[in-house]
Every structure is written in structure tokens, then in C-alpha cells.
Amino acid sequence: MLSKHSHFVVPLCHDKQTSLLNIPTTVSPSSTAVVYDQHGPPDIVTRFTEIPPVEINENDVCVRMLAAPVNPADINRIEGVYPVRPPVPGTGGWEGVGEVHAVGSTVKVLSPGDWVIHSAYLPGTWQTYVVEDQSLWYKIDKSTPIEYAATVSVNPLSALRMMEDFVALKPGDTIVQNGATSIVGQCVIQLARDRGIHSINIIRDKPESDEVKEKLIKLGADKVFTESELEVKCVKNLLDDIPEPLLGLNCIGGNAATMVIKFLKQGGTMVTYGGMSKKPITISTTSFIFKDISLKGYWLQEKNLDKAQYRCSIDYLLALARAGRLKYEMEMVPFKDFHTALERAMGKHGSRRKQVLKF
């Protein structure tokens, strides 16, 4: 659906008396959208469709989408395997940036031409126009590179909040993470560097591991290890003069999670925000009893950040992006080539860059 509103038909004015009662109401342009009628393989169940104009009520803002990413969670929602299953039929996409096209009569804080992102996680960003209440849009600086504006509110925000909400880190402290090549992982490295915090990073064994290590070190990583390099009796001997980590981040599970736990210092905390390996986390009794390790979970959608915290976090991250201090690899793809971007995001063409639809 284009918005929460149903299709609106403007009444015809037949005479002077009825024309006073039936003043034409502002409506959005028609929209091109990527929709799905049932859960299933995204490359099979998604299709383009045209959605007719909808009414713009007095508190509404009509936004022309500029860019929106294809996130793994977007794919999982269409597949029907995500913990939250939006009803079908549905419109894809949960993140993106747009330009205000029109506003309702009572809207004062936003104007046509402003750039906005959702201040809440709403479905339906894979379409050319979105109409929602003004309270659900947040204005951002238009000098922000469009690809970072489109992608700031999921991966970078998750990285920042996990670094701030579980352990009180200070300059000189250390974090350890697996999945270091992911967008979240790259953001963690750069945010840590910016704050004087050491980062230990674990990557998978691949032929190009040396090249990956070099890239992560250029981003600011202190140490980068492949999983095979950590198959040693005492990983702490690899730290040199870097303090043991207080915080660990896990998005893989299985053995990769165990490696994060092995690095943690007494009383450390591991936060799990993904399970890419689809394998369970195993922790030794010793780690619980004698090291007092804490295990936590993180899901941004259920974090319920208040508006002030959300806006402060987004502004901070976008300021870093504008200054060139927060970078990650993306690929801009025309909206008309959505299915190509989708296949790349699903790993069918070997691309590792985040796919961002450009409208």
C-alpha cells in the first residue's frame, strides 16, 4: 500500500452549492511499487505494480523516495522467516530517504524539498511515493550523501547503540567482534577508532583474507584474525599490549561466537544481534562461573528509542558520514533494475556491496 489511507476519489462539483461542500482534496501522485502477494522466494514473489493516488490528510506528509536499500531483513520478511511477519499483500522495504513532495494543511515543521527519513520502522519504502503522518518523518541535512542517508537507520544505528547501551566504554578500552566485514562490523570499527577504543575483529577464512585484513585495518581496526588463526590454546597471547575486551559483538553464532567469548575479560559481555551460521551459541561452564560472562541479545526494532535519542544518534552518524569518517561499500542501482539488485543482495551474483535502490 502507498500509505495507511485507502484510495481516494475526488468528487465532481456539479453546481455552485455542492462545490462549496466538495472542495477537491490534495492527493499524492500515483506510485510505482515493489509488492508481494504471498511469502516466498523474493525473486519469485515480488513484482512491480502501479498504486493510484491517495489522500493527503491535514497531518500527512507525502514523500518522494530518493533511495532505499535492500537489507537482509527485507529479504527475510518477504520469505516469511523473520520474527515479525507483516501481513500480505505488502510493499517491500523498511528503510530509505526521500524528499518532501507535499504536506497537509496543519504541517509546519516540514516543507516541500526537505529530505526526510522514517523516524519509526515502517514498511513500504520500495515505492516512488509514501504518505504518512508527519510524526513519522525526521528531517535530515540535505548535504548528506544520499546512499548514507538511505542506510543510516538500521546498520550504523545498530552499531552505535550496541556500543553505548550495554557497557560503559571509555578511551583505551577494547571490543571484539565477529562478522567484521558486515556493514555493522565496519561501522563498529570506525566508531571505535573515533572514540579511542581498540577493536579486535574476526573474519572467515577465505582466499582473499589478507586483502580483507588490509581493508579493515585501513578503516581503523587494531587486530584482524581469521577463524583458523584463533584455533590456539590461549587467544590472549595474540593481543600484545591491547587490553582484554569488555564488550563482544556476535552476528554469526556457532564457533565464531565461542571465539568472541574466549577473548572477553572477567565480567565481560557478549551481545548477539544475528545468527548467520544458523548454529547455536555454546558457552563453557567455566566462562559463566569463573569469568562471570554475560550474554545479551539486541534487536533494533524492539529497542524503542525515544525521539530525542533517535535524532541525536542519527545526526551524529550522518555528521560522521558527511565528514568522511564513516564509510562502507554500497552499490547504487536504478529502481527499474530492482530484481538485479535483489539477486545481488541474495548473493546470486557474488556482489558483497549493499544494494541501494535509486529512484
Automatic annotation (TrEMBL):
GO biological process, alphabetically ordered: fatty acid biosynthetic process
GO cellular component, as recorded: mitochondrion
Keywords from the UniProt entry: Fatty acid biosynthesis, Fatty acid metabolism, Lipid biosynthesis, Lipid metabolism, Mitochondrion, NADP, Oxidoreductase, Transit peptide
Enzyme class: oxidoreductase
Gene Ontology molecular function, alphabetical: enoyl-[acyl-carrier-protein] reductase (NADPH) activity
Localization per record: Mitochondrion
Domain Enoyl reductase (ER): 43-357
EC number(s) from the headed UniProt entry: 1.3.1.104
Gene3D superfamilies linked: Medium-chain alcohol dehydrogenases, catalytic domain, NAD(P)-binding Rossmann-like Domain
Family per similarity comment: Belongs to the zinc-containing alcohol dehydrogenase family. Quinone oxidoreductase subfamily.
Xref: PANTHER family: ENOYL-[ACYL-CARRIER-PROTEIN] REDUCTASE, MITOCHONDRIAL, TRANS-2-ENOYL-COA REDUCTASE, MITOCHONDRIAL-RELATED
Protein name: Enoyl-[acyl-carrier-protein] reductase, mitochondrial
Lineage of origin: Eukaryota, Viridiplantae, Streptophyta, Embryophyta, Tracheophyta
